[in-house]
Write a structure and sequence with these properties.
Distance between the termini: 31 Å
Oligomer: single chain
Cofactor: Mg(2+)
Shape: globular
Pfam family, one: ACAS_N
Number of strands: 30
Largest sheet: 8 strands, mixed
Helix content: 25-40%
Catalytic activity: acetate + ATP + CoA = acetyl-CoA + AMP + diphosphate
Organism: Granulicella cerasi
Protein name: Acetyl-coenzyme A synthetase
Strand order of the largest sheet: 12-11-8-6-7-14-15-23
Bound molecules: 5'-O-[(S)-ethoxy(hydroxy)phosphoryl]adenosine
Radius of gyration: 24 Å
């Protein structure tokens, strides 16, 4: 457990209290529709059982067979070497992930198949790229990177909106063995400079602007602000999304993507990568103020994202696949770019907001492009429910055959709505549990084989051995909450935190010796189905986005008027969790509504709008234990229920309770 703070369980999802459990009891079961199962890769639970058993008893055989479905320029010597915290997969093997995602489909005669369908936010802007066209664009951009001095192993930061060019930039890095570090386009300037400096990126790829609810988001200007403190960045390559906007360009550092691409050849060979060569770094929030740069490597990540996409989405040649996540998150890396493209799928990318210009935009897109597989977040589903059922009923949605969710627990009622109103009761829903650290799906139903239960991520993927344990590492009986761990290494797991092997070992492998600690609470029912219960550490999940409470606290205390701050999550109907901040001001300063707004805005400016506190309360001091730890449990209770009834015996200053209650607004 987190040792920084007392009572570190978040958002009421206590892993060891019965109250959350009882809310989540759910007895409805939905077997795979017969028609779906008849054409699925895996057609029955029996077939699944046999494959799962074999994958656990003979993991090396199982993963070797999966790896054989991809192209390797040199076969591996050993499937798995070593174990936690630094297992190595497919050692001795050589491959290129861009080759597997693009070239090999063209070489197999499928170059005319559409790889990417881009739908811009302004209605009517659509750009389709076939696999052959994608191959040309990727090679050109790989040559642009080379022309800017990028070599194998160099880090390239990418800060863009959802465009085909973002996928192209990512694939171009993979092609030449550069390590991409994609920074979500919603992050603020400060977050960009932190990430650029942490892994020492010398080249940044960005775009002029992107549309969000009709308004331009000037990405390049945000990059410029971020790079003010990054003098080592020598090149900024800018994709021009919208020529009608003026974009400031810095002479000697900045260049336009299209001008650079016109100067280079359209042929660029793939670099031969070792299986364990790093593929990318992706930053995620942890329990300290500093985001962790998780490092994913090439071979194992390729194999698991390929295989999970194939089986969990049951992907076939005629599917039109749409994952609504941004490429800036792990879901976009694994299930917009690498997984589906390795499977030769047609992938849809959408630039904008779900409610622009109207609240039925997503359903319009599904019908316009005949989307067959739609993968989204529970928070989006809850927003659709709010928009009203007429928005979705206006559309046919007849092309859909499979639905998926990711990012947070889905409440059974939202699941039922998705099933009924979007899936018309004949699309299986795959609730996929996994993390930035795991690289690919870990718990998820195989849709032709495993019956689903609303709110459960169901059973483990092949080769994955989860368990629910007590803090001491003892097994928890069925139907009781505990800590979710993974017992054995899997191919797509992160290998380290950039520059900090020790922090990696400490954060994930010290809690329960011998196991990977997920940071999530869960229970397993008598049928072997897992039910996720939320984070058990100081990470909160706002609309499916992971945020560290410490990160937001650090931003708050960086404000000159703030003396101390504590941030907790509280349940929120729409976002899953909302951010509640408690702030004590520097001596002599008075709280005011104005200052409250200023501080909320400050956090948005420091980290990004997604981290803006929903509630912000002033308090003379924060509740602490006698040993000086902030009692977040009390703050959480106050933020959630408006009162404090829990155990306060370790509180240092009891008079504070009354003050906290008084401050409750
Ligand atoms: C949560 C996103 C319940 C969980 C892929 C995890 C989920 C964190 C689910 C990882 C799910 C993700 N059901 N909770 N299906 N999927 N989570 O790294 O708390 O952004 O630890 O990866 O999201 O968030 P991350």
């Amino acid at each position: 457990m987190s040792t920084n703070n007392e009572g570190s369980t978040q958002g009421g999802a206590t892993a060891d209290s019965g109250s959350f459990d009882s809310l989540m009891r759910e007895n409805r079961v939905f077997p795979p529709p017969a028609e779906f199962a008849s054409r699925a890769w895996i057609k029955s639970e029996m077939e699944w059982e046999a494959m799962y058993r074999r994958s656990i008893e003979h993991p090396e055989l199982f993963w070797a067979e999966a790896a054989e479905e991809l192209s390797w320029s040199k076969k591996w010597d050993k499937v798995l070497e070593g174990t936690f915290p630094d297992p190595k997969w497919f050692t001795g093997g050589k491959l290129n992930l861009c080759y597997n995602a693009v070239d090999r489909h063209v070489e197999a005669g499928r170059g005319d198949k559409v790889a990417l369908i881009w739908e811009g936010e302004p209605v009517g802007q659509v750009v389709k790229l076939t696999y052959s066209q994608l191959l040309v664009e990727v090679q050109r951009f790989a040559n642009v990177l080379k022309a800017h001095g990028v070599k194998k192993g160099d880090r390239v930061a990418i800060y863009m909106g959802m465009t085909n060019e973002l996928a192209i930039a990512v694939l171009a890095c993979a092609r030449i063995g550069a390590i991409h570090s994609v920074i979500f386009g919603g992050f603020a300037a400060h977050a960009i400079s932190d990430r650029v400096k942490d892994c020492d990126c010398r080249v940044v790829v960005t775009q002029d602007m992107s549309y969000r609810r009709g308004a331009p988001i000037k990405l390049k200007e945000i990059v410029d602000a971020g790079l003010e403190s990054c003098p080592d960045v020598r090149s900024v390559i800018v994709y021009q999304r919208e020529p009608k906007f003026e974009t400031p360009m810095k002479a000697g550092r900045d260049s336009w993507w299209h001008e650079e691409a016109a100067k280079v050849s359209a042929e660029c060979p793939c670099a031969e990568q070792e299986a364990e060569d790093p593929l990318f770094i992706l930053y995620t929030s942890g329990t300290t103020g500093k985001p962790k740069g998780l490092v994913h490597t090439t071979g194992g990540y390729a194999v698991q994202t390929y295989l999970t996409t194939k089986y969990v989405f049951d992907i076939h040649d005629d599917d039109i696949y749409w994952c609504s996540a941004d490429i800036g998150w792990i879901t976009g890396h694994s299930y917009v770019v690498y997984g589906p493209l390795q499977n030769g799928a047609t992938v849809l990318l959408y630039e904008g907001a779900p409610n622009f210009p109207e609240q039925d935009r997503f359903w319009q897109i599904v019908d316009d492009h005949k989307v067959t597989i739609f993968y989204t977040a529970p928070t989006a589903i809850r927003a659709f429910i709010k928009f009203g059922v007429d928005k979705v009923r206006k559309h046919s949605l007849a092309s859909l055959r499979l639905l998926g969710t990711v990012g947070e627990p889905i409440n059974p009622e939202a699941w039922m709505w998705f099933h009924r109103e979007v899936g018309h009761e004949n699309c299986p829903i795959v609730d996929t549990w996994w993390q930035t650290e795991t690289g690919g799906h870990m718990l998820a139903p195989i849709p032709g084989a495993i019956a689903t239960k609303p709110g459960s991520a169901t059973r483990p993927f092949f080769g994955i051995e989860p368990a629910v344990l007590t803090k001491e590492g003892d097994p928890v009986p069925n139907d009781h909450g505990g800590l979710l761990v993974i017992r054995k290494p899997w191919p797509s797991m992160a290998r380290t935190i950039w520059g900090d092997d020790e922090r990696f070992a400490q954060a994930y492998f010290s809690e329960i010796p011998g196991c990977y600690f997920t940071g999530d609470g869960a229970r397993c029912d008598a049928d072997g189905y897992y039910w996720l219960m939320g984070r058990v550490d100081d990470v909160i999940n706002v609309s499916g986005h992971r945020l560290g409470t410490m990160e937001i606290e650090s931003a708050l205390v960086a404000h000159p008027k703030v003396a101390e701050a504590a941030v907790v999550g509280r349940p929120d109907e729409l976002k899953g969790q909302a951010i509640a901040a408690f702030v004590s001001l520097e001596y002599g300063l008075d709280p005011s509504d104005e200052l409250k707004q200023e501080l909320r805005q400050w956090v948005a400016k420091e980290i990004g709008a997604l981290a803006r506190p929903d509630d912000l309360r002033f308090t003379p001091i924060l509740p602490k234990t006698r040993s000086g730890k902030i009692m977040r449990r009390l703050l959480r209770e106050l933020a959630t229920t408006g009162d404090i009834k829990g155990d306060t015996t370790t509180l240092e200053d009891f008079s504070l309770l009354a003050k906290l209650r008084d401050n409750d607004d």
